[in-house]
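[Meeting: bench + compute handoff]

Bench side (C.D.) handed over the final construct sequence. Compute side (W.E.) agreed to return the predicted structure before the next meeting so the bench team could plan truncations. Sequence as handed over:
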Amino acid sequence: MAHVIFRSATRADVPAILELLTDDEIARSREADAAPPPAGGAGAEATGGLTPEAVDAAAWAAFEAIDADPRNELIVADEDGTVVGTCQLTFIPSLSRRGAERMTIEAVRVRGDLRGRGIGRAMMVWSLERARERGCGLAQLTTDKRRTDAHRFYASLGFEASHLGFKLAL
C-alpha cells in the first residue's frame, strides 16, 4: 500500500466521493431507485424527475450539512493527493448502554481497482480509533445483504452480525 492518510473531506473531494459511492452495481441500482428530492424543469423526465442541477444541489447541500455538524465526519483515504476511499462517521448520543455514545460507520468505499491492498482495513482501523478517542462504547454499521465479501471483511475486523436491520425508503 502506498502512503495513504485519512482526513476530513473538503468540498474539493466531493466529486471523487460521489464517484466512489456509485462504483459498483449495487450502489448504482440503489441511487437509481432513491426517491428524488423535489425538482423539475426542462429535461427533468430524462433523469427520473431530476435535472442535473438538482442532483448537484442535493449533493452539495448534503456535504454542507455533514461538514457543519460536529457529530458527523466525512472521511477520505488520500493516497498521494488522490481520493481512493471514503466513509462517513456519525456519533450518536444514547441512553442505552449506560449513556455511551456510539459511532455509526456508513458509505464505506474503496476504489474498485485498489481493493485488496489494505486501504479499507486501514480506514476501518483508523475509524475505530477515532471512536475510541471520542469515548464511544460501540461502533456499528449496516451492509447490504448481497455484499458477502464485505460481511467477511467486517467479521475479520471483529464486527458481529448481531442484529437484523430494517429500512424504509421515504
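W.E. noted at the follow-up: The longest helix spans residues 52-68. C.D. will use this when planning the next construct.
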